[in-house]
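Residues determine shape. We examine one folded chain.
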Amino acid sequence: MNGAGRRWTPAALLALGILLTRSVNTQQRLPLRRPLAEVVPQTLDGFAGQDVALSDDARRVAGVTTYLARTYGAIPGDQTRGFTLY
């Protein structure tokens, strides 16, 4: 490849990437069959769940319309640690 060809290779690759990016369709939003709170159980393997509400700002930034944020902890009397499900 000569000097002129090497000089234009990055520009050509950038232009190709732009064209490919522009040709991709936008994502389609699919409705949930059932609400997430119905699908994910309130108790998992002995851990009791507690729903956590996101602030309006957090929901706006994340772009969610439906979400489930739930923290699971040990049932009272159990010393096991918990976990969080997003």
